[in-house]
Amino acid sequence: MGEGERRVLNLSQAATGRVLLVHSDPIARGVLRSKIERAVPQLSRNLYADAHPPIVEASGLKEASRLVDAGANICILVVAIDPNVEFESIVNGIGNLSAAPGSPDIVLLSDHGLSVDRCQALIASGATALIEVQDENPETSEALLINHLKASLARFRTQGAGLHGSRTRNTEFSPGGMVWQSPTMHRLIEQATRAAQISDIPVLILGESGTGKQLLAQYIHSLDPKRGHKKLQSVNCSTISGTMAESMLFGHKRGAFTGATESRKGIFRSAEGGTVLLDEIGELDLMLQPKLLHVLQERILTPLGSDQHIECDVRVIAATNRQLPALIQEGRFRLDLYQRLNVIALEIPPLRQRREDIPLLIDFFLKKYADYYQYPIEGVDPSVYAYFENCTLEGNIRQLENAIRQTLALKCKGRILCMDDIPPRLRAGLGSNGSLHANDRPKDIPILTELVDAACRMVDAGSLTLPEFVSACEETALRKSLANATESSSELADKLGVSRRTLYNKIRKYGLKQPPA
What we know:
Number of helices: 20
Radius of gyration: 25 Å
Distance between the termini: 34 Å
Shape: globular
Strand content: 5-15%
Structural class: alpha/beta
């Protein structure tokens, strides 16, 4: 099938992902397997033939690697860290598994305590999550593991029932429902995964409207080993002010103000042990900011109208599309509160800086709304992908989703999504200019500027699509880098500005020779 042919949406087949349990103790493996089968009935061995059990087992990382390389349809590995194995061997083994075809999720279990440096090394090597198994509270770690299993199985089914065709895409699906393939998003998700492991530190999520800040907050919460099984409570700070805001956040005592006929806990106490998402934190009432700062510093709150001090154990994630330093200069946001929130800052890039994700998002939203409207779509004309890749999309993912939803809702005939299906009024609002955007062109590099200008002319003439141009440049650059490489694969990945997993996936995509490990 050629690059210009249509891609077909396969809605009839669901992929069956398998779970690989890695534990040196066969008895402990059996106990863990039984717990998983009880919690996730679809993994029960009684539902499948012995030739294809939903859960397979391995006694170590080498055996696990052989099973994954053999194409056993593994979507997630649950690996119990063996304290008797050298830590460096474990890190290397996890790295090899994370770079395997299909990029299975890897959840690590540890019952002997690990230092922060070792936790970071394991996450950096490719582990999806690290769960500390606590003897005094085993239900917590088991609940977290089950959440990861369900998310990975759902991700695997989504990939199996997604769009298939001529373009092989290194698609990523996170437990939070995000979809991406761009290196910038991959680095962001790696950072968010590491941040999730440090349960008590605030996170500040920055990004334009519509980039998916709430989804990233949900992702971090879901992977939090301490709080992921508890509530995530969210509030939009732009919709509350004054007494109402203080009551909503910290609660109030009966009779605290007119109309307070009964006591109220507030969001912080309702989320006890979990996470509070303060969306649009830049709009928080200035009078309320000192009280929030006190709660963050002391982990103690006082409900409105009460003199009782109550301990508060929550993680705070704040999100904003505003430039907080500018608000500080204007006297509208406190510097000390900003410093307290800005411990881990994650910035989601706008869609115009990761256009390679747009086709994947189109596929994702088509599948979502094809089911919703019960209107089956069998394929997408390549011109639709090219058109949306060239749109300004100032509203980012939210605007793209609305565009796909409106287009599908108004589609009257045919099973192929074509340019004619996009309503003219909708096109006017999307701001397509039919060529590469000036803001996205490389600056101060004459050769690259000439190359992009030439590509623009070819795109305008219809002799080249933007994805073809990007792929050709990427393959050529990667081929030359590999030919001249003297460093290890990890060092080469760092130099190229991508993760090791992304480097391996792109090498496989273009059929290139692997660098030294």
